[in-house]
Design a protein that fits this description.
heterodimer; A: 221 residues; alpha/beta; B: 226 residues; mainly alpha
Chain lengths: 221, 226
Amino acid sequence: MELKAVFRKDLPAFTVDVDLYLDSQQPVLGLMGPSGSGKTTVLKCLAGLIKIDAGRIEMNGRVWADTAAGLSLSPQKRECGLLFPNFALFGNMDAAENIRCGLGRLHLTAAEEEKEIAALLRRFKLAGYEKRYPKNLSWGEKQRLALARLMASRPQLILLDEPFGGLDDELRKEVSGELELLLRESGALAVIVSHRRDDLAPLCQRTVRMDKGKLEEVPCR
Amino acid sequence: MYALDWSPLWLSLKTAVCTTLIVFFLGLAAAWQAGRLPASRQLFLDSIFTLPLVLPPTVAGLFLLWLFGSNGPLGRLCREVLGFSFAFTWAGTVLAAAVIAFPLLYRAARAALEQVDPDLAAAARTLGMGEAAIFRKVLLPNALGGLIAGAVLAFARALGEFGATVMLAGNIAGLTRTLPLAIYSSAAAGRWHEAALYAGAAALLGLAAVFLLNFYLYRSSRKREG
């Protein structure tokens, strides 16, 4: 597994300029920085939701974007999952339907889909919640559903945008434990955004700080 | 009871229902596509599609008559290729009402689609959903409230259309004389009792439409809070 991402994106206030490298030795990268420093933009560029202005993004030898070649794969064509800070769950669908939306790329039969959905609900401690709607879920349950939906699409790169939100210490520990297990199990590469170093330390092999679009390495403890 | 010709009522209802169906799909499609364009082109399209709302209806009607009249460029094409005319026919009534009502539904659809959290479509894309599936499963269900409100407004506007209708479709009893035209004709001929009955029917229809709209909005806001 290997991610090579060197790109530039011009924003109104400043330019985002990044050079990122992830591989199986250091699969999880922490991305810190103040609000408005461009962290979410980096994630959206990696996911293909925003087009980069210059540079190249290559995942496992497959080119996701290359401005020199005029190439930019749509988000649908990249195997990249993004966890939004507000989860972006589809309020008009129940939990099972939300997860089903992530299974499109796998081309499963109806029976296989049902099995996969049931397995994901169990894995993320949401067994029995098939018909619950997002508005009837707690914060933690919403996050787990969003993660289940994300993992349904079997991403090779997982992007987590502020997964710790404004949580209290106990919930923080719980989420941290779950994420650690998830990342280890999936074997995917990941970038986690947080403004708290303590959140990132247990999960990330490397941490970088972003300020006004520029990155600097943050030394390990 | 007064032996009144109620064909204007049925004509108005028929016209309003057909018009609403047509502008619903056209307006929704236009709003969906417009929302995906860059801002400068959005501005241009929004202005063009809103034009019938700000033009005097008779001006719109005159333009439609020029375009779709018997010797108009599109009118002649329709007659020769498709075998029907818009001028002084019920089809013309529907066309006039549709052009006038379209901006109402288009603007409502634009607003309804814009207010859907953009992160939802973005999340759907990262999950691998295609644009058509995103529209059907994510945008449309979350925009439905605004769309229905727009449809009711379009319906009411189509019911009340006069200026463009009379220019293009004329005021032919039993064929294109909708309620508003019937009210005018009766009043112009001094048949005040008749005009009052027609006006009462038009007012009741409008009231029913607005009542249904508010009932629907009230119920859906209660459901959301629940």
